[in-house]
């Protein structure tokens, strides 16, 4: 289960000749094209001397000396068939004409997005018949939950009439298709959307066009630009090769799902002059490169001198903890992820909105995670480049630090995908879908649900072992970058409670307290509050909004529990009736003898039911 790629390799290079990074590197000593292998250094002065062993004639003969030093010596031609693919030949030519190895990032970029032979460019690599499966391909619920998040964010932004909805690396377009289907009944939201797909693959652009049910409108003016409309929600759609091509000036909601993991990474390895303890001494960090071995196969080598990406490594290590650095011998750095994050943060800070990043990764230094997947199986990274997907773990800590360098935004998370989808109400959604499907569909729903939020092998699986559903609920993380002003004014209750993290727990709690205190002024609230005080009964009050996605998912479960626990009073108060700025977040308050004993924010069915059981069984409060 993995990825999609992002930036077109030919569109730009990480370091141009005018790059300030290269400018600052001029102070580094230069070297020849020699490089370290994993075990030894090739000396600069090493040459191969060739000589002829022809015997001298016994009788001296008249000879003419000819200086052949300047003559052209054509390369020897082998008549054996060359099985190298066009991409392999291209990579070897780059290494040959450059006079030395290329970085892993350059190798990765060519393998994935080479305009003629890149892995993502001319094929459909997603789904059961492709090379890997992504969350949107697992279940429609994933796209629906992202739609709930986007609608709630739009609500907190003040429901602007126009908003850019951007997806980076949309794959087949499945996520946005499910999002638009689920949101199609909320006309005010879908009417505001301007959809922008950042995709460099022509083949995937065609698939996205089909899956979004797009049509191109005819225009009367031949000079006017034709508009593409998705019939799923009558929203305009446009495509761009790079994020910077997306128009500015509008509030922007950005979705980056399994996008960052395909960004090219640089790998660094700590090189030791002395390998034996206690004298083990480090020579420093050397970048891992890709070279061509004597047998014409690809191999890894180490750079003997600092490379341009070394500056990004130094920045990354500056963010790391000391004990973290001591333990590692390998580090992966993704300059494009760091630069792209700053670009996203600047856009959100100036135009408003938010970005949601979901990917598999770590909240800390990533050491050696680069992997290749072909037909759902791991293969050697250097084997037949272009035939397998390359991806690496996302360094969420690096993303957070990069975004926090930009003023006007705040970063929340990461949290696990399971926690994120659970807070949005996916458990209620799956139960609602199960009520309206046959057994075969139910099995598919349960399997998809487990893959999205479960951990490890599905305990209910009775099919073949090789097809056992594996949960990715804890392997995938979610992080958000939002406009700081919007969070402070109106988004704190909903968004921070979903993606607040331990450092921001005070914010959602304060917002929740303020909200519940406001409810106390409601006459209906006062009525039930007094009832709880007089009747020694447990009362569960559900504060929800009719326009709130998670609140809608709660309704059938709330009804089910009211039938199940007949000795408990269940009361629903629609917050649309209350005269204050409500947040799009379901809130449950449990009352016993006039005292608030629990408050639960978010669509958390299991937590709610556990609290109900706890307070039903607990002894009654003393008067």
Automatic annotation (TrEMBL):
Pfam family, one: Thioredoxin
Keyword field: Methyltransferase, Mitochondrion, Transferase, Transit peptide
Tagged with keyword Mitochondrion: yes
InterPro entries the record matches: NDUFAF7, NDUFAF7_sf, SAM-dependent_MTases_sf, Thioredoxin-like_sf, Thioredoxin_CS, Thioredoxin_domain
Location of the Thioredoxin domain: 498-617
Substrates-to-products reaction catalysed: L-arginyl-[protein] + 2 S-adenosyl-L-methionine = N(omega),N(omega)'-dimethyl-L-arginyl-[protein] + 2 S-adenosyl-L-homocysteine + 2 H(+)
Stated name of the protein: Protein arginine methyltransferase NDUFAF7, mitochondrial
Species assigned in the record: Dorcoceras hygrometricum
């Amino acid at each position: 289960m993995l990825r999609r790629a992002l930036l077109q390799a030919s569109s730009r290079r990480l370091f141009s000749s005018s790059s300030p990074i290269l400018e600052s590197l001029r102070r580094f000593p230069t070297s020849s094209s020699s490089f370290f292998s994993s075990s030894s250094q090739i000396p600069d002065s090493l040459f191969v001397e060739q000589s002829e062993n022809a015997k001298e004639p016994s009788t001296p003969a008249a000879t003419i000396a000819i200086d052949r030093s300047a003559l052209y010596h054509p390369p020897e031609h082998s008549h054996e068939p060359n099985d190298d693919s066009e991409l392999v030949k291209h990579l070897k030519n780059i290494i040959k004409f450059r006079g030395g190895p290329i970085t892993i990032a350059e190798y990765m970029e060519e393998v994935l997005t080479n305009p003629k032979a890149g892995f993502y460019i001319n094929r459909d690599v997603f789904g059961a018949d492709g090379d890997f499966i992504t969350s949107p391909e697992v279940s429609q619920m994933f796209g629906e939950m992202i739609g709930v998040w986007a609608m709630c964010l739009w609500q907190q932004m003040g429901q602007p009439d126009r908003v850019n909805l951007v997806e980076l690396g949309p794959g087949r377009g499945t996520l946005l298709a499910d999002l638009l289907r689920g949101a199609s009944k909320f006309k005010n939201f879908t009417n505001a959307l301007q959809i922008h797909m950042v995709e460099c693959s022509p083949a995937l652009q065609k698939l996205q066009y089909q899956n979004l049910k797009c049509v191109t409108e005819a225009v009367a003016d031949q000079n006017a630009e034709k508009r593409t409309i998705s019939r799923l929600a009558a929203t305009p759609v446009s495509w761009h090769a790079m994020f910077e091509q997306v128009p500015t000036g509008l509030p922007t909601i950005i979705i980056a799902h399994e996008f960052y993991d395909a960004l090219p990474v640089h790998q660094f390895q700590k090189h030791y002059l002395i390998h034996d303890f206690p004298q083990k001494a480090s020579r420093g960090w050397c970048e891992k490169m890709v070279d061509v071995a004597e047998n014409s196969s690809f191999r890894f080598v180490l750079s003997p001198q600092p490379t341009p990406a070394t500056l990004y490594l130094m920045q990354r290590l500056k963010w790391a903890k000391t004990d973290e650095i001591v333990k590692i011998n390998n580090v992966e750095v993704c300059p494009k992820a760091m630069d792209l994050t700053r670009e996203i943060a600047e856009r959100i800070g100036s135009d408003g909105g938010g970005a949601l990043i979901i990917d598999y990764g770590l909240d800390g230094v990533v050491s050696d995670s680069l992997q290749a997947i072909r037909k759902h199986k791991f293969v050697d990274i250097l084997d037949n480049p272009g035939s397998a997907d390359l991806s690496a773990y996302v360094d969420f800590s690096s993303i957070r630090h990069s975004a926090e360098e930009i003023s006007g935004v705040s970063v929340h998370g990461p949290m696990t995908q399971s926690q994120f989808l659970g807070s949005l109400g996916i458990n209620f959604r799956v139960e609602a879908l199960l009520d309206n499907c046959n057994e075969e569909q139910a099995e598919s729903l349960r399997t998809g649900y487990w893959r999205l939020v479960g951990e490890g092998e599905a305990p209910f699986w009775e099919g073949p072992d090789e097809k056992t559903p594996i949960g990715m609920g804890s392997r995938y993380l979610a992080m958000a970058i939002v406009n700081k002003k919007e969070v402070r004014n109106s988004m704190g209750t909903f968004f921070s409670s979903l993606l607040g993290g331990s450092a921001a727990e005070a914010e959602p709690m304060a917002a929740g307290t303020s909200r519940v205190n406001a409810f106390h002024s409601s006459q209906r609230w006062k009525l039930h509050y007094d009832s709880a005080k007089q009747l020694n009964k447990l009362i569960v009050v559900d504060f929800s909004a009719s326009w709130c996605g998670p609140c809608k998912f709660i309704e059938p479960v709330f009804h089910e529990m009211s039938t199940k626990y007949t000795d408990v009073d269940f009361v629903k108060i629609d917050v649309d009736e209350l005269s204050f700025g409500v947040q799009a977040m379901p809130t449950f308050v449990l009352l016993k003898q006039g005292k608030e004993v629990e408050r639960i924010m978010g669509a958390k069915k299991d937590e709610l039911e556990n609290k109900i059981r706890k307070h039903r069984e607990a002894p009654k409060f003393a008067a």
